[in-house]
Amino acid sequence: MHQYKNLKFWHKAMDMAQMVFEITSEFPVGERYGLTSQLRSAAVSVPSNIAEGAGRGTNADFNRFLDMANGSLNEIETQFLLAERFKLIRNDRIEAVLDELNQIQKMIFNFQITLKK
pTM value? Predict the structure, then answer.
């Protein structure tokens, strides 16, 4: 088992989830049950999957949960790109979010390499 609170990418995922909540609070009320809900759910699932996987008994199990976290990161990216198309988010905000998502994905990928050794 791993101590997820010691993992830098878990902390970054927590910060990213907070960022998603802050950004989506600026979305129109009409998006509450659309993109806002989808983005928030996916954002919460990233650090949650990291934590759940860390508590599993094997590295293979942990790796599977990290794959799910990566899937959620891709989902968040896609939804923010849609939000950009729908003019729900400013260009400078989308760039910051996409950069953060990319950093977390790289960190998870590199950690997965160590799990497989």
Answer: 0.94
